[in-house]
Specification:
A hairpin with a 2-residue loop joins strand 5 and strand 6. The strands form three sheets. An eleven-stranded mixed β-sheet has the order 10-9-8-7-6-5-13-1-2-11-12. Helix 3 crosses helix 6 and helix 5 packs antiparallel against helix 6. By secondary structure, it is of the alpha/beta class.
Length: 490
């Protein structure tokens, strides 16, 4: 009886704490780091966020804190804080987190059901004023490095405590190993008779020299060895390196499409519009910051294999991330489903070696992909129904393809709805609630909220045993040995 009461209490506390914490009227830091002349801007940006939260449309992709009302953080930007010791480094960093905050504010403003309480035009001016003030405030940077923000974990410890996590892992490990063997076994299975090849329509003509010069110039401008390319360069790289997806197509569930709202509260995947969602990110890799190109496909459903399939349900999808080396060439490929499940890591360079596995953390599936000098396209095969990767290889591009429209992943944070407004695909916790799976009822002891449900970038927990986040800045570094010296030079 006591255990049941404890479980109920924990569930009640978790249901409250999982929502964003209410934004206070003020914080000591706001008074300390922003002069009296800037308080009006601090109040306005904070008021906007409070209105957003009260109307239930707070975006979860980035971390926003009232101490920094003009900034928003991802795990990568937070990892750079200890290295912000020069004016150039601070300028590049604060411009990045300021831009991220501006994107977040825009999608939140678009999603507000009632915009009457917000004067949005002043947000840009206030951000500029606060950025200029903090950039030149040495005490601000000292305090930031002494007490850096921490991106919240997507693991909930209370679930592991109540679920007797140490014991649960003993029962789970054999099943996890068995599932990995099954997935790897799929790599030797023949391709289904009816498979469709999808890719972007037009690839730009880029040479290795072109791309290398872009990265050299970008690094020369950075005190952090951080290659920030122009939007035009990023678009060209995205299209040039876009993989071909070979999808076994047995049913309508195997057709990728565009995510949209057909009714105000019912998101769906329109398979009449084959779509590839793209975004960029960065990773820290043995002393270097490397650019990552993210490619995302969405499917209407994961097909049920039985009448009570715990993994089946509405929505499915895969996120493929291509990490480029310091010259802009494909280096590492890794992928997850949008639930954070089935993490796979592929070494594309023959010089890369996987590190010894950490016994305390569930390891992803790791494989080497042999190079092919005569091929220029990464070919990724997905199985029917569960959309599992069952093949990665270099191949010559084929003409027998169906074209994918390319959309910015950020559009999922603010989709049009029928009444003329906008709504995010994800809730304030970064979850797509319409995609819940039955597996959540027996996998909860491992601390992952709603296992199997699709979720937003920044909220992909990828291990049930131990903890690992897909967007952790040093995640790939932990999986690989330090590369040969030639890859650490320009």
């Amino acid at each position: 009886m006591r255990i049941l009461v404890l479980l109920i209490i924990c569930c009640s506390v978790a249901s409250c704490s999982s929502l964003p914490e209410p934004i206070p009227k003020s914080t000591p830091e706001q008074t300390q780091f922003y002069s009296r002349s800037l308080q009006a801007c601090v109040d306005e940006l904070t008021h906007f966020k409070r209105t957003v939260q009260q109307q239930g449309v707070q975006d979860a992709q980035l971390l926003w804190l009232p101490q920094y009302p003009h900034l928003a953080f991802d795990r990568f930007s937070l990892s750079l804080i200890p290295e912000l010791n020069s004016y150039r480094a601070r300028t590049q960093w604060i411009n990045y987190v300021t831009r991220q905050a501006a994107i977040q504010r825009k999608v939140e403003y678009q999603n507000l059901p009632d915009k009457s309480a917000v004067e949005f035009k002043n947000q840009k001016y206030c951000t500029s004023m606060l950025t200029r003030a903090t950039l030149n405030d040495e005490s601000f940077w000292h305090w930031l490095q002494q007490t850096p923000p921490e991106y919240p974990s997507d693991y909930q410890n209370w679930q592991r405590v109540v679920g007797l996590y140490p014991i649960s892992t003993l029962f789970a490990e054999p099943s996890i190993h068995s599932e990995k063997k099954r997935i790897i076994g799929g790599f030797v299975e023949p391709l289904h008779d009816y498979s469709v090849v999808y890719t972007v329509s037009d690839k730009p003509e880029l040479t290795a020299t072109d791309m290398q010069s872009w990265f050299i110039q970008a690094r020369e401008k950075s005190a952090l060895e951080w290659p920030q390319l122009t939007d035009e360069q990023l678009t060209s790289l995205m299209d040039f390196h876009a993989p071909e997806f070979v999808i076994e197509s047995v049913s309508l569930d195997d057709k990728p499409g565009e995510v949209e709202y057909r009714q105000s509260d019912q998101p769906t995947v329109n398979i009449q519009k084959p779509t590839l969602y793209v975004s960029s990110s960065y990773t820290r890799f043995h002393g270097k910051t490397l650019l990552q190109l993210n490619y995302s496909l969405w499917f209407p459903n994961r097909t049920a294999k039985s009448a009570l399939d715990p993994y089946a349900g509405k929505f499915d999808g895969i996120l493929v991330r291509l990490t480029l080396d310091s010259h802009g060439q494909p280096y590492i490929l890794d992928s997850i489903h949008h639930c954070g499940c089935y993490h796979m890591v592929f070494a594309l360079d023959p010089q890369l070696r996987f590190a010894a596995r950490n016994p305390d953390i569930e390891a992803p599936i790791t494989l080497q992909v042999p190079p092919n000098r005569n091929a220029n396209t990464l070919n990724i095969t997905l199985s029917n129904g569960e959309h599992m990767i069952k093949g990665v290889r270099w191949a010559e591009s084929t003409n027998r393809i169906r074209h994918l429209a390319v959309l910015d992943y950020q559009q999922l944070r603010s989709l049009s709805i029928q009444d003329g407004g906008n709504k995010s695909l994800f809730d304030q916790q970064g979850m797509l609630t319409a995609s819940e799976r039955l597996e959540r009822f027996y996998l909860w002891p491992f601390g992952v909220k709603s296992p199997g449900a699709m979720r937003q970038i920044g909220h992909h927990a990828t291990a049930f045993i131990g903890e690992r986040h897909f967007d952790d800045a040093f995640m790939l570094e932990a999986l690989f040995q330090a590369p040969p010296p030639k890859f650490l030079t320009n």
